[in-house]
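User: quick one, sequence for these tokens?
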């Protein structure tokens, strides 16, 4: 893992709006970029709902939330609607950004897959905080507290 701060890798991934979104679209803003294994699974749902519940506070702090998984746009759309998610979900079927951010690796029982990781990226486009092993419940509050520290 790189030592923070370091330049955040850019990406261009498809969103639910049919448009490609890149990290450079958010230059000048704080970004909470999180990678998760799959839509509508218990841990991923708890994490997404925690971030959803913290979104207004994060927005007041000038931060955008972006979630990335390999799920297709149709799956993302159902997940977003079912849990009233109020942030951008992007699809990375080839795991390009997932690999760039080191969010692919060994999981339980020796299987490989997407690791639950969150990155806080500052307005200059630098990763300033990495959560390598995210606890889904309460993650939104954890990110809010860390962002307050980083902005102080």
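Assistant:
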């Amino acid at each position: 893992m790189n030592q923070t701060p370091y330049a955040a890798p850019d990406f261009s991934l498809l969103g639910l709006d049919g448009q490609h979104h890149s990290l450079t679209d958010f230059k000048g803003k704080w970004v909470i970029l999180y990678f998760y294994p799959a839509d509508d699974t218990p841990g991923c749902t708890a994490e997404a709902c925690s971030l959803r519940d913290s979104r207004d506070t994060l927005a007041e702090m000038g931060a955008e939330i972006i979630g990335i998984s390999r799920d297709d746009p149709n799956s993302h759309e159902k997940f977003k609607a079912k849990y009233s998610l109020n942030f951008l979900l992007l699809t990375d079927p080839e795991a390009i950004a997932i690999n760039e951010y080191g969010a692919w690796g060994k999981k339980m029982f020796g299987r490989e897959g997407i690791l639950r990781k969150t990155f806080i990226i500052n307005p200059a486009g630098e990763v300033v905080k990495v959560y390598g092993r995210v606890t889904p419940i309460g993650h939104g509050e954890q990110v809010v507290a860390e962002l307050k520290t980083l902005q102080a």
